């Protein structure tokens, strides 16, 4: 059984919705890349229920922070849960798309929402991830045919990233 099948089973049986974000979401949109963990977006209100469900299925709690909870399983690897306010989750869930990953149908973050998450990570994240996240943004922009010089994309970058990131994306998208 694949990790996504387990997550989908938990979601169905416990009535806990989720959205795939991170590397698996980038892959679902057609970008070939490697990833070693599964990143999921969940409502903050459901954080404890997810923790209970994952621990009941043999996952070990590794780290718990305000916005993230990390789990590990010897058999399945690492799962990172990003928890957001219910209104944010509902907005992102409504814009997400159903995609098949490893034979399992799951909700995947929309490209604009995925780019917003990547921009946030680039703005606040670790420097060793910058190349991977920046490359993901460039590839997602290309796949979606986004106009990087348009006001909508610039506003997305200004809200979730920085002016410098916006300028770099425009430069490397040319």
Set out the fold topology:
Elements: H1 3-14, E1 19-21, H2 22-28, E2 37-43, H3 47-56, E3 60-64, E4 68-73, E5 77-84, H4 86-95, E6 97-101, E7 104-108, H5 111-124, H6 130-144, H7 151-160, H8 163-173
Parallel strand pairs: 2-5
Antiparallel strand pairs: 1-2, 3-4, 4-5, 6-7
Care to describe what's here?
The chain is α+β, with helices and mostly antiparallel strands. It has 2 domains: 1-109, Beta Polymerase, domain 2, CATH 3.30.460.40; 111-174, no CATH class. Helices cover 51% and strands 22% of the residues. The strands form 2 sheets. It has a 5-stranded mixed beta sheet with strand order 1-2-5-4-3. A two-stranded antiparallel sheet has the order 6-7. The longest helix has 15 residues, at 130-144. 30% of the residues are buried.
**H/E topology pattern:** HEHEHEEEHEEHHHH
| Name given to the CATH architecture of the largest domain | 2-Layer Sandwich
Which segments are poorly predicted (pLDDT under 50) over 5 or more consecutive residues?
none
Query: How many E strands?
Result: 7
Structural class: alpha+beta
Count of separate DSSP helical elements: 8
From the N-terminal CA to the C-terminal CA, the straight-line distance is 43 Å
What sort of overall outline do the alpha carbons produce when their principal axes are compared?
A: globular
Rg, Å, rounded: 16 Å
Biggest pleated sheet: 5 strands, mixed
Share of β-strand residues: 15-25%
CATH class of the largest domain: Alpha Beta
């Amino acid at each position: 059984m694949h990790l996504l099948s387990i997550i989908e089973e938990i979601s169905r049986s416990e009535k806990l919705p989720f959205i795939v974000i991170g590397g698996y979401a980038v892959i679902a949109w057609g970008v070939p890349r490697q990833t070693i963990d599964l990143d999921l977006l969940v409502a903050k209100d459901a954080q404890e229920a997810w923790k209970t469900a994952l621990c009941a299925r043999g996952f070990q709690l590794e780290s718990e922070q305000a916005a993230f909870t990390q789990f590990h399983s010897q058999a399945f690897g690492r799962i990172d849960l990003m928890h957001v306010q219910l209104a944010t989750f509902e907005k992102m869930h409504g814009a997400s798309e159903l995609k098949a990953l490893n034979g399992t149908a799951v909700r995947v973050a929309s490209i604009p929402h995925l780019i917003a998450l990547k921009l946030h990570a680039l703005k606040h994240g670790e420097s060793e991830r910058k190349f991977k996240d920046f490359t993901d943004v460039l590839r997602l922009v290309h796949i979606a045919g986004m106009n990087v010089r348009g006001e909508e994309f610039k506003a997305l970058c200004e809200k979730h990233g920085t002016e410098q990131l916006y300028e770099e994306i425009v430069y490397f998208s040319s």
